[in-house]
Amino acid sequence: MEKEEEKCDIYLEILKVPFNSISFQSCDDVIRFSQEKPDELLKQLLIERQYSLALDWITLNNYNEKFSSEVPQILVLKLLDNDIPDFESAEKILDNVETNIVLIVIENLLKNTAEFTVRKFLISYVISKNSFQFKTLDIWALQQELMGIILIEEVCLKTSDKSQLLSLVNQPNLIIEQWIMNLKLACVDKGIQKISSILNSVKCKSAGITCNISRQEVDCLCWEHYYLMVEKYAVKALKLSGTQISIHEILIAEDCEIQFVMPHQVPSKSDWQENASVNVCPVCKIAVFSIFFRKHHCRRCGRVVCGDCSVFRHIVEGYGDDEVRVCEFCYRNMTESLSWDNDHLVNIDLSTEEEESDSAETTSISTNIGWYFTTDPLHNQRLREEFAFDFTPSLSVCHSLFTLHKDDSRAALAILNLCHKSFEKVVDSISLNLHTVDRYYVIKIINTLLLSAKVRFGKILNLDGVSVCEYYKQWSNWVESLLRLNLVGLLPKGTLNNVLEIGELMRLQLLQQGGEDLLLKNLKQEKISLKVLRDKLIKTENWDLALEICTKEGFDKYGVWSAHGVAALKAGDFKTAREQFDKIFKKTTNKNLNTKLSLLEDIVLFLENNEFKRDDEETTPESPLDTHSLKEYESNSSLLIAEKNKKEDDCSLFTSLNLKECDYYIRMYGSHQMYLQFLFRHELFQESIKYCQQIMVDEALFSECILLSSFKSGHFKQMWSAIDDVDPKHVWINSLIHRVYRYLNKYDHLPCLVEVQKILNDNLTACKTLLRMYKADSYKDLLLRNSYLKEIILLLKEFLNSNLVRENDKNIDQTDLFYKCETVECEVENALNQQILLTDAQFYLTEFLGNLENSGVDFKSKIKLVRELLKDRDPRVSNKVKNLDFEVPTLFEKEDRMVICVILLCLDTDLKSNLTAIRELVDKNCLDAGELLSLTLQTMVKTEEFQNLSFVIESILSWNYIPDSSIIDCFRPALTMKGISIQEHIVKEIAKYLTDTKDKLNIYIEVGFLKTAFSEINNVGTIETMERLLKAAEENEDKIVIHLCSKCTIFVLPFGLLLNINIDI
To answer: Which among 207, 375, 919, 949 is placed 20 to 30 Å from 149, CA to CA?
Structure first.
């Protein structure tokens, strides 16, 4: 009875439920429907959320077995469909139900329940169990739905936004993308944080930045797709349209207005107005397009308009049923309205939820237009094609998007790639001379992004990535500097393209895709280009940039400092010049080292040749300040600085600014030699001598900088006068003079040495030095030095006329005289007188022979011949003669006197007068007359000059210096010279001067004239001569002479031989 009453109560409760699809008039209708259609009744109860009533109804009718799977479902719904859902109890119910029942329960609940709370719990339960029992469920779809539910329920708190996103619950990727497009980046960040654990379990087959993603994966949300989405819109945020015009170069034109008429047909995209042709919005006439103010196209007329004038949406033919962007003018024409239609304007607040407004993203931007996805793929595709951020390029938006990137390595590479593309646009605008991009702003974007990439690479300790960032930053800074200085044209052709190639190869190496060899080649080419750029920057006086290039690339900085210093010097900016040159030069500690500093020499030369005026002096047009410029130099500032350096001025020897600077540089960086040369150039002779005393100058420096310089410039007397003034007692100079002698003598500075010796009254030493100078390889050249002989004679006479000879007669060593007299016992005075005579003789000899050479006579071959003959005759003089091979003989060398005599005897002119001089030489110098005759004959035979043969022989023999027995010895060398054939009459001419007939016969035999010898045999008184002749004939195979000798009969008579010759003819 109680059971029936309970049953009746339950049916009454069911009767009271306001079902939508069924209706009951009475309890009988309920009972009947329950019996006929129990499944339908249970379904309707669940739809109306009558969970307790459904459970009571099942229990009352014993439907527990029939609805075994529905019971847990109802229990779960009952626990979850409350203000405070009991997830823990619901989970326990599912855990205690059989496995097959749980699967049915979950499938039914997911199929029939739209409540986010229930679906979220069920999907989370399935994913958390990850059991084989749920293999029939689409886990991937459930993951996507769960992420969609979380994004809508937990992230998006505005009701208006939730309603729009409900249709996208199964496509969380569209939710994220829509938020990105509408710059709700805080929502994106919060949503990714909440679903990151789910994303970690979502499998995505694609990998890599440029991978191909299948349609299913594109419609899903996974890490890969999320990263691609972020990178894609980060690029869009920095979109640099080739038609955008730099803010600094906009020209507003076209003052006249032309009435626009909307075309009858919708233009295709290819017929749209070109971006580059429009600078100002044609609708409002106010908006000026720039890198910050985007251009948009009206889909109806194809014109380029601004964003504010194209906020309208309308259905346009060719674009389906979607409302697309149109301009105000076309919208009015299509709607026949002259006012704004606010129904077509969608006001979207791009900031985050109200409670987080204070900490909202700084990149959030409010606009009048929102971008919304639907479940229609075609609509979504057109929306993506049409989408663009209203203000691009936007560094803040791009940076904020990359902050959403969770993979540091991939984000850094993506940023690097974006920087490369941006830099490529800058390069293109430079190479093509286009002004469609604000290069400075783009470079600023690049540098900011590079910093972000560098930080990310640093986090993962990728030093190679950091290096690539530094490379791009370095070049972007250089390009910016060149652009600001208007010097980008200095870049060698192809340099920036090479930079792009290097950057691309570096990024490939980060991805481990090779290219090492090509990278090295490009880097080598870059080095060459940078050196060229550095040189051009130096020429244009852009020192800082040139120095920066040298620093970064490891080039030599001295060239930049040097050029900067020289330019400053030319402009008169002495302070800057000193600063730059101080970096180059090192203060010399050992100033005795004469290091070659060509730059220092150039500095001194410039300063010496240019005068700089003080402020109180009138600057003439010829002043270097008017002819040179330096960018960093403010007019005449260095002159003020120079005036302030009074201490340096007081210490300086000079009054003019340029010479004071010279004095500074040489004292600071130069050597003693350079400073002495500087003082000498400005005729500061006493200061030069004082400086020499101060530094304790050595003989080499004193000789080179003082003596030789003054001698060559003609200031020798003035310099020596300065020495007398500084050192009147010659104490200092006497301590130095002997070393100076040795130095000048060693390095053959003989003219200067003579002058020093003459000033010091060292006449004999001066004569010796002059004699050393009296050398030449021809007499015509020696004739030019004949003045030395006159000077020697004057010095010797002056020495003789002084009392020095008498006072020092006993102390003067004969060996110290420049010519030692042959008479050892002679006194010094006699020796000097003899030397005067010999010098005078040499003077006239040189004059005579020099004039002959000038007239065409050549003595060189004869001199060489005679010297060779002397070497062969007397090996002892071989070395002495060898040293004279390249000098003509003079009377001052004993070995040369014989040569001179032979040369004079072989002359055709003035032979008689020459013989007198020759005999005097022979007498005074004890020359061997026999040797002289022998050498003369040999020379004549060698040269075949026999014109004066008889006269020479007769003249020398007439001196009676040669005994008759020695005459043949004088003739024999000339007549028996090897390799020379002498004519018979020449031999007879020479032989006739032999007094002994036997000597004649011997000469004929030795020479080989056997017939002549046979004809002379009758006068010979010995049989040995005949035997010798026969033997010579047999050796020479002279058959005639042999026959003659064999046919003759010899009778010995008291007076000689009598030959009885019987010859058969």
So the answer is: 207
Element (H, E) at 296: strand 296-297
Q: Does residue 790 register a pLDDT over 90?
A: yes
d(CA 737, CA 386): 100
Return the pLDDT at 91: 64
Q: Which residues contact 586 (CB under 8 A, 6 or more apart)?
A: 669
87, 121 Cβ separation under 8 angstroms: yes
* Region 468-494 average pLDDT: 89
Query: 3-class DSSP state for residue 620?
Result: coil
Contact status, residue 1026 vs residue 1020, Cβ threshold 8 Å: yes
Cross-strand bridge partners of residue 280: 288
191 within 8 A of 155, measured Cβ to Cβ = yes
Closest alpha carbon to 299 in 312, 308, 286: 312
Which residue is associated with the tokens 């990850």?
Answer: 130
Q: CA separation (Å) from 156 to 167, 189, 353, 356, 649? A: 14, 12, 8, 12, 81
909's CB contacts (< 8 A; 6+ apart) are 852
> Between the CA atoms of 887, 891, 895 and 901, what dihedral angle is there, to the nearest 10 degrees?
100
Angle (nearest 5°) at CA 684 between 577 and 751: 115
d(CA 1004, CA 1017): 11
- Write down the domain spans for the chain: 1-167, 407-555, 556-613+655-670, 858-869+881-995
Cα angle 935, 937, 941 (rounded to 5 degrees) comes to 115
Q: What are the percentages of helix, strand and coil residues in the chain, rounded to 5?
A: 65, 5, 35
323 DSSP assignment: E
- To 10 degrees, what angle do helices 894-905 and 860-873 make? 120
Are 847 and 786 contacting, i.e. CB atoms less than 8 angstroms apart? yes
- Give the separation between CA 3 and CA 82, rounded to whole angstroms: 30
Q: Which amino acid is at 416?
A: L
Enumerate the H helices of 113-242 as residue ranges. Answer: 116-129, 139-150, 159-165, 172-181, 185-201, 215-218, 223-237
Do residues 505 and 512 touch, judged by C-beta distance below 8 A? no
Q: At what angle do helices 685-695 and 716-726 cross, to 10 degrees?
A: 60
SS (H, E, C) 60-105: HCCCCCCCCCHHHHHHHHHHHCCCCCCHHHHHHHHHHCCHHHHHHH
Dist CA 569 CA 603 (whole Å) = 8
Say if residues 633 and 649 touch (Cβ distance below 8 Å).
Answer: no
Mind listing the pLDDT tens digit for each residue in 635-673? 344 444 444 444 444 455 677 888 888 888 888 888 888
For residue 908 the two structure tokens come to 């055709």
What is d(CA 322, CA 310) in angstroms, rounded to the nearest whole number?
A: 16
3-state secondary structure 657-714: HHHHHHHHHHHHHCCHHHHHHHHHHCCCHHHHHHHHHHHCCCHHHHHHHHHHHHHHHC
Q: How far from the centroid of its chain's Cα atoms is residue 566's Cα?
A: 21
| Secondary structure element (H or E) that encloses residue 466, with its range | helix 463-484
Q: What angle do CA 1054, 1055, 1059 make, to 5 degrees?
A: 95
Whole-angstrom distance, CA of residue 161 vs CA of residue 15: 39
Q: Which two tokens stand for residue 933?
A: 């005759």
Q: What is the spatial distance between Cα 479 and Cα 443, in angstroms, rounded to a whole number?
A: 8
Give per-residue burial for 604-627: e unless 16+ CB within 10 Å, then b: bebbbebebbeeeeebeeebbbee
Helix count and strand count (H, E) for the chain: 54, 6
Start-to-end Cα distance in the chain: 202
Mean pLDDT across 219-248: 73
Q: Compute the distance between CA of residue 598 and CA of residue 592 in angstroms, rounded to an integer.
A: 17
Q: Each residue of 78-124: pLDDT tens digit?
A: 666 666 766 666 666 666 566 666 666 667 777 767 777 777 777 77
Q: Are strands 1056-1061 and 323-326 parallel, antiparallel or unpaired?
A: unpaired
